[in-house]
Amino acid sequence: MVPVRVRFAPSPTGALHIGGIRTALYNYLFARQHGGTFILRIEDTDQNRYVPGAEAYILEALQWCGLTPDEGPGSGGPYGPYRQSERKSRYREYALRLVEAGKAYYAFDTEAELEEKREKLRQAGWASSQYDHRLRMDMRNSLSMDPEDVRQRLDAGEPHVIRLKVDPGEEILIRDAIRGEVTVRTEELDDKVLLKADGMPTYHLANIVDDRLMEITHVIRGEEWLPSTAHHVLLYRGLGWEDRMPEFAHLPLILRPDGKGKLSKRDGARFGMPVFPLAWKGDTDENSFTGFREEGFDPRAVVNFLAFLGWNPGTEQEIYSLEAMTPEFSLERIHKSGARFDYDKARWYNQQYLMATPDEELATLLLPEAASRGWKPDKEWLAKVCGLMKERVTFARDILRKGYYFFEPVKDYDQATLARKWQPDSASLFEGLMEVLLNTRPFVAAGLESKAKAWWEAAGAGPGAILPLYRIALAGTMKGPAVFEMLEVLGPDLSRERLVRALEIFRQREKS
Ligand code: GLU
């Protein structure tokens, strides 16, 4: 068996969309499952689209998700360099080899000539103006021109490109692990540029040459590359590399939450959700985006969410760590149709991971933020607060934001509920129960609760008359944790402080 080698091959043209991370993830899982190698290759041959900082962003995003490449620009490896711009000298040789084999040709047409031709065809009502078998003999290239003329031009260094010669009348069969067999007729294909006038290869040539030189066994990439695959098959054939052509798997699109088309960079702003792993600072506000990391997501939740966006293991289980999903993963279980991006589901995943995170770990994570808010909680105590709050929030940092009342006095009391619940006898009930609770020892939830029950039964009052008032007294809201649990965590002194202050404020209601 040939060892599995897969690559994630982004172009550094800006922030990496969440779909790119999913592609990286599926490659990573496939490599891990087969004991193979996961390679990062930076496809930066298009100098016009190069964006500084994009490569660093890609590396950081992969790292954050725990998808560290085995080989790549940051990691090194025996097949480097892994940046195509640093491999420039290698590609020309293969383009020339294709020319010699009659599978490619030189073309001297200038941009102006190409534009003029396209315009003429448009006016003549041609449906397509692509440079292909119908057009090439009208253009200035080594197929249409006199060989001597061509030689002279080449010797004189006249700018030229090398194009793939696609002959009509053939059917190309692409075997795709996800879509099955796809056939493309060569009449439909254009004569793609392989080597540009500046000597840089285009994506097509560089991609195929590098997949070969890096001994890639499986190409797992987005569906948008499926139409290029027929050209790639022709390149493999032309170079005599059909023997070890990689297997292809084209991943379904990620769709907008409303299902109307492909999820795009702009949809983050449109739907009020992140569509990038990390925030990106562009040159304008319009080009700057928030990221899952900055929104407070746990990367494990993001990875789990992304894995299920287009794949599932065929069981009811939804929570899988990277390690756990590795043996379950298979290309065959990837869906053919697009996967809808469901932000609520992402939040749900985060909450699941949050609830499963040990309280002590959360406390360690949150201590610096607590300090920056001017609170100096003891770590063990903070862990108790985390234990109470983590089921009630979606993001770890919301534990401090929403549970601020553990650290400082309540800012706002829920007036609407108070208006309904505060009765003429409320003050005396409140005080009576306070008396009992604050004298109970040990000051733990279960004991406090049974004392309270005995008290309200004796007092002939139901819990409904008093517990909501306590909840609001301690947390300001009905959404806080259960009363007795809050009391235990606050301890007798803070509990007294909070209750006395609340009672005083609630009593004012009677006067106003
Ligand atoms: N550079 C291409 C991209 O940006 C790679 C496509 C492929 O994996 O072949 O997605």
Descriptive overview:
With 512 residues, the chain is mainly α. The protein has helices at residues 18-33, 54-64, 88-100, 111-123, 147-155, 203-213, 226-238, 267-271, 299-307, 322-325, 343-356, 359-372, 379-389, 398-402, 415-421, 426-438, 445-459, 463-475, 483-511; strands at residues 5-8, 37-40, 104-107, 161-164, 171-176, 180-185, 193-195, 218-222, 247-251, 254-255, 339-340. It has 5 domains: 5-71 and 207-255, HUPs (Rossmann fold); 89-195, Glutamyl-tRNA Synthetase, domain 3 (Alpha-Beta Complex), CATH 3.90.800.10; 265-356, Glutamyl-tRNA Synthetase, domain 2 (Orthogonal Bundle); 362-406, no CATH class; 409-512, Orthogonal Bundle (Arc Repressor Mutant, subunit A), CATH 1.10.10.350. It contains 19 helices and 11 strands. The strands form 5 sheets. The protein has a 3-stranded antiparallel sheet. Helix 7 links the parallel strand 8 and strand 9. Helix 12 packs across helix 13 (379-389), helix 16 packs antiparallel against helix 19 and helix 18 packs across helix 19 (483-511). The longest helix is centred in the C-terminal third of the chain and has 29 residues, at 483-511. The structure holds glutamic acid.
How many helical stretches? 19
* Proportion of strand residues: 5-15%
The run of helices and strands is EHEHHEHHEEEEHEHEEHHHEHHHHHHHHH
CATH architecture of the largest domain: 3-Layer(aba) Sandwich
**In CATH's first tier, which class of the largest domain applies?**
Alpha Beta
Q: Please, what is the CATH homologous superfamily of the largest domain?
A: HUPs
- Residue windows where pLDDT falls under 50 for at least 5 positions: none
Kindly state the number of beta strands.
11
- Read across the widest sheet, the strand sequence of neighbours is 3-4-7
Q: On the 0-100 scale, what is the average pLDDT?
A: 96
> What is Rg?
32 Å
Give a list of the ligands: glutamic acid
Q: Which bin fits the share of residues in helices?
A: 40-55%
Distance between the termini: 84 Å
- What's the main sheet like? 3 strands, antiparallel
Q: Overall 3D geometry?
A: elongated
- Tell me the count of domains: 5
Quote the CATH topology of the largest domain. Answer: Rossmann fold
Quickly give the structural class.
mainly alpha
